[in-house]
Amino acid sequence: MSNDAATATPAVTGTAGDAAPAPEALPHGLGVSLPSADARAKSEGTFPYAADLWAEGLLWAAVLRSPHPHARIVSIDTSHAREMPGVRAVVTHEDVPGTPLHGRGRIDRPVFASEVVRHHGEPIAAVAADHPDTARMAAAAVIVEYEVLDPVIDPEQAFEAEPLHPDGNLIRHIPLRHGDPEASGEVVVEGQYRIGRQDPAPIGAEAGLAVPRPDGGVELYIGSTDPHTDRDTAAAVYGLAPDRVKIVVTGVPGATADREDQGFQLPLGLLALKTGCPVKLTATREESFLGHAHRHPTLLRYRHHADAEGRLVKVEAQILLDGGAYADTSSEALAAAVSFACGPYVVPNAFIEGWVVRTNNPPSGHVRGEGAMQVCAAYEAQMDKLAKKLGLDPAELRMRNVMSTGDVLPTGQSVTCPAPVAELLEAVREFPLPALPKDTPEEEWLLPGGPEGAGEPGAVRRGVGYGLGMVHMLGAEGADEVSTATVKVHDGIATVLCAAVDTGQGFSTLARQIVQETLGIDEVHIAQVDTDQPPAGAGCRGRHTWVSGGAVERAAKMVRTQLLQPLAHKFGMSTELLQITDGKITSYDGVLSTTVAEALDGKELWATAQCRPHPTEPLDGAGQGDAFVGMAFCAIRAVVDVDIELGSVRVVELAIAQDVGRVLNPAQLAARIEAGATQGVGIALTENLRTPRGLIRHPDLTGYSLPTALDAPDIRIVKLVEERDVVAPFGAKAASAVPVVTSPAAVASAVRAATGRPVNRLPIRPQAAVVTGA
Q: Which residue range or ranges hold the Aldehyde oxidase/xanthine dehydrogenase a/b hammerhead domain (predicted)?
């Protein structure tokens, strides 16, 4: 192989992180709807996704995956695959030079299965060949002899089953104890609830390119959401020092979870190092479903105690999460589920048992709102039951119990951030209801089932329901949340270097706005993300708005001081007496007035800063502790039409009021809320990844029903409460996770109101919405 192939640079068009300069005529800075930084590249088709990459001397990879959810591997024969024309390398567990294990939250997952396969789709071997079809055929030619074992697919059976993993079947148990265990209420309601398995279902399936380096290292061009963690994992697996592995983040086609599963990344680098050639892998949709983590299926049992006025006295709950074959981020998901098991309500006594266990089902992991979404559906169902038993309006019952700033979570942590839950609920409660559909042929599309719906207008019942949800922001339980950013100014152009990956949450646009407002510079570029930059952490739970945005702001303010100091010194005043507005620098008394361009005068300024929120602590043996940095809240009123004969449901409208801290970009914020609420509609009605006997059934977008534009309801953002969180940069809160958490519960509540049925399972099956004898 030539040296040219070994050092080939991927050919891409454009730069994933580079921001097109904002037109001077447009407003800029925080609080305005600045267009998305990558909107033009995406609309023109030049945005460089990982699937678009190419390099000289490129080879193609394919991965052989287990067809069984549980089996013992008797033997692996790769000889036939190696002998096929065009095949350049075949790797198995024997070819992993470093640690054979990896994992997001816990290092417990093999790169390639060696003795046992623990879930359907687990990687066994990987192939590099001259053509993608050759690679796939060679992977299929690897002969694996299995001894098929009975899978453990019921998480309740996992407690008594033989250990599926050397670490055992129990991943974590959290017993939460808060208040008086003998407390009881005059009214008691009980319920059992099940939440299905949802897939992130990214529009673009996983893809990546690995390029070997002359120093014996490797570069991975992937859509990573946490590049430094991925680099360190890859280096350990490859047996290399971290500085010999580089992650370059390509365009990420949206992320509502850990976007790039490491099971796709790691074989790429192994094959590139073995062949000395660039190697590319583009997953099929089936491989995408088989490979990445899903939302935790959950079984929940609840008992709510209340007094005669409807005020909560005690909540008891058992929460069981199915973690699948490996731990991943299951521990964090369980902590969120247990901590928020009572919802945004004042509960003086709470006793919660939470478990997450291993099974032979597909691995579960971080999916937007994990843990909090499952318990929200259950505790809101309980609130509906309680209201019905007391003869109270469901919204009124909720209003009597909502928490506010200063109240205490069942974990013992005080809610120090703004918690305007009552204000949110009142806003959606008072918002006018949508008009009833007309019973005419022209209006048939309003019926559940769409234009071709088989239902009759006389069988349609309308229901109104409520959901109150909460999520935590940033990491939890002692996670070290830190981000670093550098801001450089040269020739009147500012550049931001920060390893915060824009997964669709708009960080690149926000970074531009921060620099524009702080420095008065219109043209701001965002450098492409790679691991040569200091770490910024994962792109989830609003981290980059808070931590990375805070780092960019601090760096920009340091550059601002450098810019203003000479002028302040010249006029005998402090920099605090100068302000930058619309590209002009003025003093408080009007003596000084100049432009930013004149003040720069060819100077090159730069500064690097970090942002690290206040520390948290792990939950103790009784589930107590200050585990969270901050929280965000949401209230949703759902209006649905239900055909009570067919069980079909149409979500007519979602009225949303949300606690956002501060609006940084109105259009971007609205888009995030609307997208999150629509995702929640899918969770409520259609999305259910079925895994009979541990096998993923129909791993494609035909068998897995995502909501389409026709399923999206009218979404009314009726109120955004801008009560700034004083410990957060800009005072802003995470925006997209809390509507995902809340909207499924609100839709289920509305279906209960329309049908009188209990609706104790998500997604809602048609038979659950059928009313017999109506």
A: 44-150
